[in-house]
Amino acid sequence: MEAKTLLLQQWASCLDERDWFPPLEKALEDITFEQAIWKPTDGAMNSIWELVCHLLFYEKRFLMRFLGETANEPQAENNESTFRLSTKTVDNWKKTKQEYFYVHRELGKILAKSEHEDLYRKVPGEDNSLMLELKSLAMHDAYHIGQIVFLSKMQGAWAGKSSS
């Protein structure tokens, strides 16, 4: 299997195609605002919304760098600040999800249109090529999707959904 095909499959499985783990669209499908901001009482975990903000930060930053729009890339003092929420409203929760879905799809389009040599060219502002950066982002997504599913299960919001 060609590397591009493999990565396209991996990229899609993070958003909207079932694989070994549920895609993020499915995981977030019925998550209410209250469930999105909920945290376990010990406070050791981020909320679902904070996790989506974190995923969005890194994908959007990569997209802006890839497009050469570094003036528009999100900024953060450190990794911890990438989990910060905007004002907590139902509309902002919906906007965060939609922006993440949009950015993820835009990166998928870039990957789909890329020629073989483009996949291995270093992306300005990044340490690696398009191929390696998107592979890393997909693995990052999968890790945090697992946390989102776990938080959903803790709240009883996963009832009736299959685990994979």
From TrEMBL:
It holds the Pfam family DinB_2. This is DinB-like domain-containing protein. Coiled coil: none annotated. InterPro entries: DinB-like, DinB/YfiT-like. Residues 24-148 form the DinB-like domain. It comes from Virgibacillus kapii.
